[in-house]
Amino acid sequence: MTSRRKSDLRRAEIIEAAAAHLIEHGLHDSGLRAMARTVGISDRMIMYYFETKEALVSEALLLISERLAAGMDAALPKSNATARQALTALSATLQSAEAQAVMRLWFEIIGLAMRGQEPYAQTAAMILERSEAQIRGKLRADHKHRAREVLSALEGEVMVSLLRGI
Questions:
Q1: Distance separating alpha carbons of residues 23 and 65, to the nearest angstrom
Q2: Helix (H, G, I), strand (E, B) or coil at 6
Q3: Residue 140: pLDDT above 90?
Q4: Which domain range does residue 120 map to?
Q5: What is the pTM assigned to this prediction?
Q6: Phi and psi, residue 81, nearest 5°
């Protein structure tokens, strides 16, 4: 195995561990040292692979968003769904403890994004755009204009559930 390949694999392992850390602990405990402990390396070693903490967080959030998109894709009907069918299918996928942990993180990201903080503002915009397009692609022609409504209703439903502890 080449050293470049080893480096890429180690980088991917760090991103994976950072993503798991963010999902479990949220952004409030996302210091470089805390994430380094999760990965099992020093914070200086993380800096070898990533220029900044923000670069690592961005990569971890990208990985989380890709998984979220894959989960949405698997849950949504293949095509020609009504807005109600899409919302019902997506709601069902967010009942697990893991999905709720991801959504708690998502709401943290949204809060920071609304304050204009990076990398959260850019990440949130990308995730919202992708999610809306993904939903739109599964809706039947006369419901495509309701993709944002489905996404908003889904997030509202999840937020209320999380706040009620359900």
A1: 11
A2: helix
A3: yes
A4: 3-164
A5: 0.86
A6: -85, 155
